[in-house]
Amino acid sequence: MSGDLNARLADLPGFPVLSGQRLRLRGPRADDVDAVFALFSDPDVMRYWSHAPMRERMQAEGKVEEMLEAFEHRTMLNWLVADRRSDTAIGSCTLFHFDARHRRAEIGYALRADHWGCGLAAEAVALALDWGFRTLALHRIEADIDPRNAASRRLLLRLGFRSEGLLRERFFVGDDATDSELFGLLAQDRRRRDG
Protein backbone atom coordinates (compact mmCIF):
# COMPACT_ATOMS: atom_id res chain seq x y z
CA MET A 1 0.00 0.00 0.00
CA SER A 2 2.84 2.44 0.79
CA GLY A 3 4.13 2.45 -2.79
CA ASP A 4 0.71 3.33 -4.20
CA LEU A 5 0.95 7.03 -3.34
CA ASN A 6 4.37 7.36 -4.96
CA ALA A 7 3.11 5.49 -8.02
CA ARG A 8 0.03 7.70 -8.29
CA LEU A 9 2.19 10.80 -8.09
CA ALA A 10 4.66 9.43 -10.64
CA ASP A 11 1.83 8.53 -13.03
CA LEU A 12 0.52 12.08 -13.24
CA PRO A 13 0.96 13.03 -16.92
CA GLY A 14 1.13 16.72 -16.13
CA PHE A 15 0.17 19.24 -13.51
CA PRO A 16 -3.47 18.44 -12.64
CA VAL A 17 -5.97 21.20 -13.39
CA LEU A 18 -8.91 21.33 -10.98
CA SER A 19 -11.95 23.45 -11.83
CA GLY A 20 -14.48 24.90 -9.43
CA GLN A 21 -17.39 27.27 -9.90
CA ARG A 22 -15.33 30.47 -9.71
CA LEU A 23 -11.71 29.38 -9.94
CA ARG A 24 -9.24 26.84 -11.20
CA LEU A 25 -6.21 25.28 -9.60
CA ARG A 26 -3.46 25.01 -12.19
CA GLY A 27 0.27 24.71 -12.42
CA PRO A 28 2.46 27.81 -12.39
CA ARG A 29 3.85 29.39 -15.56
CA ALA A 30 6.67 31.83 -16.21
CA ASP A 31 4.14 34.61 -16.82
CA ASP A 32 2.79 34.18 -13.26
CA VAL A 33 5.87 35.73 -11.62
CA ASP A 34 4.28 39.14 -11.06
CA ALA A 35 1.13 37.58 -9.58
CA VAL A 36 3.22 35.34 -7.31
CA PHE A 37 5.22 38.36 -6.17
CA ALA A 38 2.03 40.36 -5.51
CA LEU A 39 0.71 37.50 -3.36
CA PHE A 40 3.81 36.66 -1.34
CA SER A 41 5.08 40.22 -0.90
CA ASP A 42 1.87 41.40 0.79
CA PRO A 43 2.46 41.75 4.55
CA ASP A 44 -1.24 41.10 5.24
CA VAL A 45 -1.16 37.79 3.35
CA MET A 46 2.12 36.77 4.98
CA ARG A 47 1.23 37.89 8.50
CA TYR A 48 0.77 34.34 9.81
CA TRP A 49 3.24 32.50 7.57
CA SER A 50 6.45 30.93 8.83
CA HIS A 51 8.58 33.29 6.73
CA ALA A 52 8.67 36.99 5.95
CA PRO A 53 7.11 38.62 2.85
CA MET A 54 9.10 38.64 -0.37
CA ARG A 55 11.01 41.87 -1.01
CA GLU A 56 12.26 41.40 -4.57
CA ARG A 57 10.67 40.13 -7.77
CA MET A 58 13.53 37.66 -8.24
CA GLN A 59 12.26 35.80 -5.16
CA ALA A 60 9.00 35.18 -7.04
CA GLU A 61 10.96 33.96 -10.06
CA GLY A 62 12.71 31.49 -7.75
CA LYS A 63 9.38 30.46 -6.21
CA VAL A 64 7.86 29.65 -9.61
CA GLU A 65 10.97 27.62 -10.53
CA GLU A 66 10.75 25.82 -7.17
CA MET A 67 7.07 24.99 -7.77
CA LEU A 68 7.82 23.53 -11.20
CA GLU A 69 10.83 21.57 -9.96
CA ALA A 70 8.88 20.18 -6.99
CA PHE A 71 6.20 18.92 -9.38
CA GLU A 72 8.83 17.43 -11.67
CA HIS A 73 10.17 15.42 -8.70
CA ARG A 74 6.63 14.87 -7.37
CA THR A 75 7.55 16.16 -3.91
CA MET A 76 4.90 18.88 -3.87
CA LEU A 77 1.83 19.98 -5.84
CA ASN A 78 1.83 23.75 -5.59
CA TRP A 79 -1.15 24.95 -7.58
CA LEU A 80 -1.84 28.55 -8.36
CA VAL A 81 -5.41 29.58 -7.66
CA ALA A 82 -6.64 31.34 -10.81
CA ASP A 83 -9.81 33.25 -11.54
CA ARG A 84 -11.81 30.97 -13.81
CA ARG A 85 -12.69 33.68 -16.33
CA SER A 86 -9.44 35.63 -16.61
CA ASP A 87 -6.99 32.85 -15.58
CA THR A 88 -5.19 35.46 -13.43
CA ALA A 89 -3.40 33.92 -10.45
CA ILE A 90 -4.89 35.20 -7.18
CA GLY A 91 -3.53 32.64 -4.70
CA SER A 92 -1.84 29.33 -4.10
CA CYS A 93 -2.91 25.96 -2.73
CA THR A 94 -0.35 23.25 -2.00
CA LEU A 95 -0.26 19.56 -1.13
CA PHE A 96 3.16 18.71 0.29
CA HIS A 97 5.10 16.56 2.77
CA PHE A 98 3.76 13.41 1.18
CA ASP A 99 4.17 10.36 3.41
CA ALA A 100 3.59 7.27 1.27
CA ARG A 101 3.78 4.76 4.12
CA HIS A 102 1.04 6.48 6.09
CA ARG A 103 -0.88 7.88 3.06
CA ARG A 104 -0.66 11.37 4.49
CA ALA A 105 0.06 14.88 3.19
CA GLU A 106 -0.14 18.47 4.37
CA ILE A 107 -2.06 21.32 2.81
CA GLY A 108 -1.29 25.02 2.71
CA TYR A 109 -2.97 27.95 1.03
CA ALA A 110 -2.84 31.71 0.51
CA LEU A 111 -5.16 34.14 -1.23
CA ARG A 112 -4.65 37.75 -2.31
CA ALA A 113 -6.11 40.08 0.31
CA ASP A 114 -8.45 41.78 -2.16
CA HIS A 115 -10.21 38.41 -2.61
CA TRP A 116 -10.71 37.62 1.09
CA GLY A 117 -14.19 37.06 2.48
CA CYS A 118 -15.71 35.67 -0.73
CA GLY A 119 -15.33 31.93 -0.04
CA LEU A 120 -12.64 31.49 -2.70
CA ALA A 121 -10.07 30.03 -0.29
CA ALA A 122 -12.61 27.45 0.87
CA GLU A 123 -13.41 26.56 -2.75
CA ALA A 124 -9.72 26.15 -3.61
CA VAL A 125 -8.91 24.06 -0.54
CA ALA A 126 -11.99 21.87 -1.07
CA LEU A 127 -10.90 21.15 -4.66
CA ALA A 128 -7.43 20.11 -3.48
CA LEU A 129 -8.81 17.99 -0.62
CA ASP A 130 -11.26 16.14 -2.86
CA TRP A 131 -8.55 15.51 -5.45
CA GLY A 132 -6.04 14.35 -2.83
CA PHE A 133 -8.46 11.90 -1.23
CA ARG A 134 -9.91 10.64 -4.52
CA THR A 135 -6.94 10.61 -6.91
CA LEU A 136 -4.05 10.02 -4.51
CA ALA A 137 -6.12 7.86 -2.13
CA LEU A 138 -4.75 9.80 0.84
CA HIS A 139 -5.97 8.66 4.24
CA ARG A 140 -5.20 11.89 6.10
CA ILE A 141 -4.50 15.52 5.24
CA GLU A 142 -3.03 17.88 7.82
CA ALA A 143 -2.79 21.64 8.10
CA ASP A 144 -0.94 23.74 10.59
CA ILE A 145 -1.72 27.40 11.13
CA ASP A 146 -0.81 30.22 13.43
CA PRO A 147 -3.62 30.01 16.01
CA ARG A 148 -4.10 33.79 15.82
CA ASN A 149 -5.30 33.36 12.22
CA ALA A 150 -9.03 33.20 12.99
CA ALA A 151 -10.11 33.22 9.32
CA SER A 152 -7.94 30.22 8.45
CA ARG A 153 -9.13 28.40 11.56
CA ARG A 154 -12.78 28.95 10.57
CA LEU A 155 -12.06 27.76 7.02
CA LEU A 156 -10.51 24.49 8.21
CA LEU A 157 -13.29 23.78 10.70
CA ARG A 158 -15.92 24.52 8.04
CA LEU A 159 -14.24 21.98 5.74
CA GLY A 160 -14.36 19.29 8.42
CA PHE A 161 -10.86 19.48 9.92
CA ARG A 162 -10.44 18.92 13.65
CA SER A 163 -8.03 20.83 15.83
CA GLU A 164 -5.57 18.32 17.26
CA GLY A 165 -3.28 20.42 19.39
CA LEU A 166 -1.06 23.41 19.86
CA LEU A 167 2.68 23.30 19.19
CA ARG A 168 4.24 26.10 21.19
CA GLU A 169 6.77 28.44 19.56
CA ARG A 170 7.25 26.10 16.60
CA PHE A 171 8.29 28.70 14.01
CA PHE A 172 10.40 31.82 13.95
CA VAL A 173 9.23 34.66 11.73
CA GLY A 174 12.13 37.06 11.90
CA ASP A 175 12.97 37.16 15.59
CA ASP A 176 9.47 36.24 16.80
CA ALA A 177 8.66 32.70 17.93
CA THR A 178 5.12 31.74 16.93
CA ASP A 179 2.85 28.88 17.90
CA SER A 180 1.32 26.43 15.45
CA GLU A 181 -2.08 24.74 15.70
CA LEU A 182 -2.33 21.33 14.04
CA PHE A 183 -5.50 20.27 12.23
CA GLY A 184 -6.31 16.89 10.71
CA LEU A 185 -8.90 15.60 8.27
CA LEU A 186 -9.44 11.90 7.53
CA ALA A 187 -10.82 10.60 4.24
CA GLN A 188 -13.74 9.00 6.09
CA ASP A 189 -14.55 12.35 7.77
CA ARG A 190 -14.71 14.00 4.35
CA ARG A 191 -16.87 11.22 2.91
CA ARG A 192 -19.29 11.43 5.87
CA ARG A 193 -19.47 15.21 5.54
CA ASP A 194 -20.19 15.07 1.81
CA GLY A 195 -22.35 11.93 1.99
Automatic annotation (TrEMBL):
Presence of the UniProt keyword Disulfide bond in the record: no
Record-linked Pfam families: Acetyltransf_3
PROSITE patterns per record: GNAT
Species of origin: Luteimonas marina
Alphabetized UniProt keyword annotations: Transferase
Domain (N-acetyltransferase) ranges: 23-192
InterPro entries associated with the record: Acyl_CoA_acyltransferase, GNAT_dom, Ribosomal_N-acetyltransferase
GO cellular component, one term: cytoplasm
Protein name, UniProt field: GNAT family N-acetyltransferase
UniProt GO MF annotations: protein N-terminal-serine acetyltransferase activity; protein-N-terminal-alanine acetyltransferase activity
